[in-house]
Amino acid sequence: MLSVKEAQAKVLECEVKLKTKKVDILAGCGKVLAQDIISNDFIPAYDNSAMDGFAVRAVDIIGADKNYPVRLKLIKEDIPAGKVPDITVESGFAVPIMTGAPIPAGCDCVVMKEDALKEGRDVLVFREFYEGQNIRYRGEDIKKGETVLKSGKKIYPADIGVLASIGVNLIDIYKPPLVAILSTGDELVDINHKLDEGKVRDSNSYSLAAQAREAGADFKMYGIVKDDKELIRGKISAALGECDILLLSGGVSVGDYDFVKEILADTGAEFIFWRVNQRPGKPLAFLSYKDKFIFGLPGNPVSVMVCFEMYVRPLIKK
Amino acid sequence: MLSVKEAQAKVLECEVKLKTKKVDILAGCGKVLAQDIISNDFIPAYDNSAMDGFAVRAVDIIGADKNYPVRLKLIKEDIPAGKVPDITVESGFAVPIMTGAPIPAGCDCVVMKEDALKEGRDVLVFREFYEGQNIRYRGEDIKKGETVLKSGKKIYPADIGVLASIGVNLIDIYKPPLVAILSTGDELVDINHKLDEGKVRDSNSYSLAAQAREAGADFKMYGIVKDDKELIRGKISAALGECDILLLSGGVSVGDYDFVKEILADTGAEFIFWRVNQRPGKPLAFLSYKDKFIFGLPGNPVSVMVCFEMYVRPLIKK
């Protein structure tokens, strides 16, 4: 019998082969990127102002100070964000500029609004700024041809912002693994069913589905199957035809009525492990079938959730 | 000017009035329950075995021990899970029973399989069990009429299991708040657009949408609106007609081209606060309009995300 650690290590040696799909960036948030993202643009696309203020030549305002302001001539045409200035600013001049607006030719720094005062057709500058100050340079954030996000990265909201800024609206992501969920047991009835004596509602299918989705997987519920070899075999092979991971709950014990182990052996699935030394959560089986994986989970509602957290979630997350 | 703490406190004094809707339990996972859930059943629904083994009378096996096993007569009819036994077990008898199977009349404990040995038509019991041992009693987990989940609770996968077990498949949840997202600025172009000089792609709408969804809200993007009073006013009133929270990005500064403050004042929205003493993330405005809320967020892509985390997420989460 394996220890819990040994069993978990065996699960983590396995890897679900995931397909990829193209989605729009908002649908990709929270998913895993399946391509490198390379920028076709410089961001910012042009030198621009980081502040509301006045674009000037740094050399013109050397020594500017509260007590000894420098007086510059105001070019009346102010530059809002989004407008390209067709002026060249000469020495001795200042031009009003908004945050984000392109830096006009001739200027090499921006005086903050708070450090200047309009006075008629002039502007007084009360502080020195050095060359490049309050300017965001072309390509400062992202260079053209730069790999901004690497394949395999989980996509967060900040990444969505980056993708949008470089004009990427479709991305390849790894499709979440599809988890098939099948409950076995003559005692089980669907959750819409009245509880006749001897019957239990199949809550495991629902808690496992919720756990699978919460772990980032897609799921498909295959319902309840009676303790009948042929029926179980049929459902298992249908599920294996579609899913990446099959979760069976109930049925994997040493009890007389548990055929599932035998049936799994019949399908050609290979047992990776069969019994793990733990409570709750015994019995537990883990098998591989081609490039798919099968977990035989206990029937007890608490055990089944614990086993999911300990064994299935790590495989999905990987 | 407010401190960050004062501003956050003011946000948390507010509360979005949420509508409710009925969804199936799996769609409700991760959402907030809007009703008390009362069980119509006892869970378990009947006394049943917690183990595979033999149902017996505790009094018959007093003193049973490895060296001095107690010999009982085996009733051949074993009880699988899901089958209701129509037998009454007399003193001196044992009946094979599976985990989850109803306890037959006459029995009051279950001997674990490992502590017994079949010997022809008898069974040897090697250990004492007390009355009630290895029996899960009717209603032990949940009583009929019991409130199992309270309104206001966030729903986790384990809760889905509980709901399924008591046969609840539809629940009332609070509809996530609808967050409207609107970007203002002449410099903005849609993310599919080429970056002409002076232009910036509207990444904020996308990062805010991703953040809103990640925080549990629904979102609707209202796109980009030019710095034109009439256009902005129109979009704002359309958004306020539908959403619970409106996020404006860009436009809320002291700059000459920022009409938004004025327009918001025109709509009749009330300023809760206007300037907060923080960088990055200045300027920032928070307003209420009827039972809706408006955030004026900065245009800078980092600032806007930081402000979302500091002010908008707490309101959504509340």
Your description of this structure?
2 copies of one chain form a homodimer. Chain A is α/β, with parallel strands linked by helices. Chain A folds into 3 domains: 4-18 and 176-317, 3-Layer(aba) Sandwich (Molybdenum Cofactor Biosythetic Enzyme, Chain A); 23-43 and 142-174, Alpha-Beta Complex (Molybdopterin biosynthesis moea protein, domain 2), CATH 3.90.105; 48-136, Molybdopterin biosynthesis moeA protein, domain 3 (Beta Complex), CATH 2.170.190. Helix content of chain A is 23%, strand content 26%. The longest helix of chain A has 17 residues, at 301-317. The two termini of chain A are 25 Å apart. The model of chain A has no long low-confidence stretch (mean pLDDT 89). The interface between A and B is large, with 70 and 69 residues.
Characteristic key phrases:
homodimer; 318 residues; alpha/beta; Molybdenum Cofactor Biosythetic Enzyme, Chain A; Molybdopterin biosynthesis moea protein, domain 2; Molybdopterin biosynthesis moeA protein, domain 3; 3 domains; 6-stranded mixed beta sheet; 20 strands; 26% strand
The order of strands across the largest sheet of chain A is 7-4-6-5-9-8
Largest interface: A-B, 70 and 69 residues
This entry's quaternary arrangement is: homodimer
Biggest beta sheet summary of chain A: 6 strands, mixed
Low-confidence stretches of chain A: none
Instruction: Classify the helix fraction of chain A into a percent range.
Output: 10-25%
CATH architecture term of the largest domain in chain A: 3-Layer(aba) Sandwich
What is the total number of structural domains of chain A?
3
Structural class call of chain A reads: alpha/beta
CATH H-level homologous superfamily name of the largest domain in chain A = MoaB/Mog-like domain
